[in-house]
Each structure stands twice: as structure tokens, then as C-alpha cells.
Amino acid sequence: MKEIQTNTPVLVDCWAPWCPACKMLAPILDEIHEEFGLKMIKVNADENEDFISKFQVLGLPTLLLFQENQLVERIIGYQSKETLIDILKSQGMI
């Protein structure tokens, strides 16, 4: 995926339209994007099976954090905004 091949930190949100936890997480990710300007990419798991397989996404939602073209963190399942911010800060992404 071309969008993750950058030196800029990128959060990839692996989701599906039928996933209730994904729907709950979406507004939290929007808030984090607005507050911190973190680059985010949404990947519909149903439409991007190659990507999902390549990164071994086994549950939804899954957030993949990339820095300098490398996967540095994988967050599986719904997380609170505070938890996500703590993880992003610990990785130096925000």
C-alpha cells in the first residue's frame, strides 16, 4: 500500500461495515485525527483481503501503526480514546 510507504507516522484502521466495534471506534479515530493531525487510512477488510492477509489481521477492528515504513504496533479490538492516545504517545506518533 503506497500510503504507508512514508516517513510520516500512519495509523491504518482495518474495519468492516458489519463490525459493531468498528462503528464505535470510528468517531474516536476521527477525534484523534482532528486533535493531533495523525495520518489515518481506513482499510475495509471485506474489500482488501490481500492487505488483511499480508498483515495477518485476525480480528476487527485492528489498528496498525506504521513509522518509517515499518509496522511498530498492532492494536486489536475496541479501545478508549485515552488508551489510544497513550499508545500513540508511547510510540512517538503524536
Task: Report what the structure shows.
The protein is of the alpha+beta class. The chain starts with 9 loop residues before the first strand and ends with a helix. The model has no long low-confidence stretch (mean pLDDT 95).
CATH class: Alpha Beta
The CATH homologous superfamily is named Glutaredoxin
> Could you list the spans in which at least 5 consecutive residues all have pLDDT below 50?
none
Q: Tell me what portion of residues adopts beta-strand conformation.
A: 25-35%
Distance between the termini: 22 Å
Q: How helix-rich are the residues, as a percent range?
A: 25-40%
User: How large is the count of helical segments?
Assistant: 3
Count of individual beta strands: 4
Order of helices and strands: EHEHEEH
- The helix-and-strand class reads alpha+beta
User: What is the CATH architecture descriptor?
Assistant: 3-Layer(aba) Sandwich
**Main beta sheet:** 4 strands, mixed
Strand arrangement, major sheet: 2-1-3-4
Cα Rg: 12 Å
Query: Which fold does the CATH topology refer to?
Result: Glutaredoxin
- Mean pLDDT across the residues is 95
Silhouette: globular
Taken together, the total number of domains comes to 1
Question: How would the blueprint of this fold be written?
Answer:
Elements: E1 10-15, H1 20-36, E2 39-44, H2 49-54, E3 62-67, E4 70-76, H3 81-90
Structure at a glance:
This protein is of the alpha+beta class and 94 residues long. It has one domain: Glutaredoxin, CATH 3.40.30.10. The protein has 3 helices and 4 strands.
Keywords summarizing the entry:
94 residues; alpha+beta
